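Ticket #4471: complex job returned nothing on first submit. Input attached below:
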Amino acid sequence: MAATYLPHGSDQLAEGARRRRATRPPWMERASIPTRAVKFIVIAAIVVVMLYPFISVIATSFASVEAANAGGLFPTSFSLVGYRSIFSGGVVEHALLVSVGITVVGTSLSVAFTVLLAYGLTRTRDVPGSKVVLYMVLATMLFGAGIIPNYLLVKSLGLINSYWALILPVLVNAFNLVVVRNFFMEIPREMFESARIDGASELQILRRIVVPLSKAVIAVIALFYAVGYWNDFFNALLYLNDSGKWPIQLVLNQYVLQGTPLSQIQNPNQPPPPAQTVQMAVVVLATAPILVVYPFAQRYFTKGVLTGAIKG
Amino acid sequence: MYLFIVPGLAYFVIFAYVPLAGNVVAFQNYSPFLGFEHSPWVGIHNFTAMFNDPEFVTALKNTVIISLLQIVFAFPAPIALALLLNSLLSDRIKRVVQSIVYLPHFIGWVIVVSIWQEVLGGTGPINELSKRLGLGSVNVMTNPSTFKILITAQVIWKEVGWSTIIFFAAISTISADLYEAAAIDGARTWRRMWHVTLPGISSVIALLLILRLGSVLTVGFEQILLQQNAVGTGAAEVLDTFVYYRGVIGGDWGLSAAAGLFKGVIGTILVVAANRFAKRLGTGGLF
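Support reply: We reran it on our side without changes. The output follows.
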């Protein structure tokens, strides 16, 4: 099962698909009408089950007071009352900003540490000891210390209630490291050798040669890290006792799942908007960044996971 | 070169290896005020207390039941989906469906549970519809007796698409000659799937299944923690939630660390053993 990482592979694949369709081989005949009908129904059902919940949430978040109370499969009116009450409060806004901050800082640090270590581990033959480090990293995929020792460590480092507690314990992911290292290993050695002969330092080689050639794979792991930081719930629950510091996922849990009202988001001069509308508006805001990035990132995600999964 | 290695190595030592040593708490009557050095040693007392604790036994039982449910239902689902999508002739439809089914993988559990709550909860459209049809009120989100099925369904919804990727990769390695030969021998679509595609991906299926069996003590922690209040601990206590509530919330550090260590050691042994077994079957293994 050898697979190579093709930065421009999609064009070739599309080309191949086009050619295949032009001269479809004899074993790719069209299925019979009943088979096709069954397939169509099954696939349509899958698509509905996957998409309807998203549509329902978005529709509810835009519902007016009357429409939300009326129920039904789809609310029928449009109103911004839910969003307006969120943005007049400040709790959700603050939590969104916190999440953005953690995601940006965390992703930058994670990518930097991962790329440096991955490059450092590309020459296990010439650099004594680096093979041991590689095995140490790989071994962490097999075990985890457990919740309690991790909590006690973070506590003894004095990181409780600090945003660093959400970044440092998950700084480098062994799987992502393997993905990047595999990619670096594929770069022809001659490129490094000639640069070294020209007197380039290792840092220059990394910056001028390796990173520019690896933009696609670095984008992949950056996206993996960013999704991880954005969606993180448990570390925040564990380490942030001060609810004023909470990221969006914790606010979402508190407000939508545990049903604790956020008193600050109610304007005393107006009748309160329906709780469900406001809750779903929070859900939409928490999901929006992923929905926005997803269409662009999807292609890279798939490739990244294949590079790592097949070789790892 | 060492300058590149040191920062990352420091991370792995501090946050992956130092906490391993922290597991000594499992053999102590640990108190945060006394610390590791001065807390009294109690030998394996925490472990014997753990097995005599009915809550731990419930947690262990629930964990294994949920894991088995997921192996039976959530594991084959992506294989079926991959075969179905693979049988589509139109690449465009295939790609569109793929982008739709991959999406939930990137949504965090808090959001996934919120979305399910919105659709299937007491005020959701499904309950509304069922009431209108005269079927009475249904709220699967708060029903303890169906909770394990619910979370299996959630796992399928979230991961079925993403998990097809590995099977697509395996299918793409099957030589077209085999399909051609089968077609010439008169095998039609179903027989080709049965005799060419499935055997072609069987080693990947076996490998993933064995590794899944190796992580039988690991179930979706965040997913269950988020929904435990709605259904109660009887149905929703698993090993990880037990450790979290007993230790971090309850302050019983020794006992909860013992439960965590138990899970970690058994889990590692199972994964390594599963990998050995996979290698013996000739499927290569992962490491």
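Residues 111 and 130 of chain B are 24 Å apart (CA to CA). Closing as resolved unless it happens again.
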